[in-house]
Amino acid sequence: xxxxxxxxxxxxxxxxxxxxxxxxxxxxxxxxxxxxxxxxxxxxxxxxxxxxxxxxxxxxxxxxxxxxxxxxxxxxxxxxxxxxxxx
Length: 87
What we know:
Number of strands: 0
Largest sheet: none
Oligomer: single chain
Order of helices and strands: HHHH
Helix content: over 70%
Distance between the termini: 50 Å
Number of helices: 4
Structural class: mainly alpha
């Protein structure tokens, strides 16, 4: 289903909505804490965009990317510490 057909059927508008809070225990969405984190990050970005658009344009994507990368690196660090028997 492409372009105009998707818009007519309403599928395009439904497929872009976040569904993580609706199915917190499936392997597709992750735990509810992830949905909360994404919501809070989006809310902060939205407020910053309204209050200071130039600052938001400059910092929202790099800071968000840094948080994502930092969480991944900490996950690796925790896994290594756990494997080493330190935690």
